[in-house]
Specification:
This protein has 196 residues and is of the alpha/beta class. It has eight helices and six strands, in the order αβααβαβαβαβαβα. It has one domain: Isochorismatase-like (Rossmann fold), CATH 3.40.50. It has a six-stranded parallel beta sheet, with helices on both faces.
Length: 196
């Protein structure tokens, strides 16, 4: 049993598993801006993508970006450095292998649901279970997970398919989400479930 499996066992308050034909994968902000942060989990993310394609699980990719003159919000003043829409840093990583049929969800704040078309798309596909991976664990991934839960989606959070600036932030999010919002999963466990 690896360290992540131990964490899942120790933190999870619910041991739900995704229902394959009611599941979608949401990969948050896998963009050039975050390449360094994503590097340690990129192999896991690409394995999830390949397994999802093989099993016809819908894939959703958020793409964070700002045009402060057109869509100002508090993030513009909170962070000294922001991702500008249409910049090289805003591009989704080519390793994701985006295909026709994948949903790209533009966003300009932490939540993948705020002022986006994500929720109606999930409802149209009759999605009940939302698996979340990407960056940053404690910001966009966590906020999206909480928003999904209050919208009555069952949330599954990838412990080794999310990353952030420090282990402390990562673990704090895992503890909080597992207590009240999400079931924690490893990427390998998710792949086993969706391939059954």
């Amino acid at each position: 049993m690896n360290e992540w499996e131990n964490l899942v066992r120790d933190f999870n308050t619910h041991h739900w598993e995704p229902v394959k034909d009611k599941t979608a994968i949401l990969l948050v902000d896998c963009q050039e801006y975050f390449r360094g942060m994503l590097s340690p989990i990129l192999d896991n993310i690409t394995k999830i993508i390949l397994a999802s394609r093989e099993m016809n699980i819908p894939l959703f990719f958020t793409q964070h970006g700002h045009r402060p003159d057109e869509d100002p919000n508090l993030l513009d003043s909170w962070w000294a450095d922001i991702i500008r829409k249409d910049s090289n840093e805003a591009r989704l990583l080519p390793e994701l292998g985006i295909q026709e049929g994948d949903s790209i969800i533009p966003k300009n704040t932490y939540s993948a649901f705020h002022n986006t078309g994500l929720e109606p798309e999930l409802q149209d596909k009759r999605i009940q279970d939302l698996v979340i991976g990407g960056v940053m664990t404690n910001l966009c991934c966590e906020t999206s997970a909480r928003d999904a839960f209050v919208r009555n989606f069952r949330v599954f959070f990838l412990v080794d398919g999310t990353a952030t600036a420090s282990t402390d932030y990562h673990l704090a999010t895992l503890r909080n989400l597992s207590y009240g919002f999400a079931t924690l999963l490893t990427c390998d466990h998710l792949i086993q479930v969706i391939k059954m």
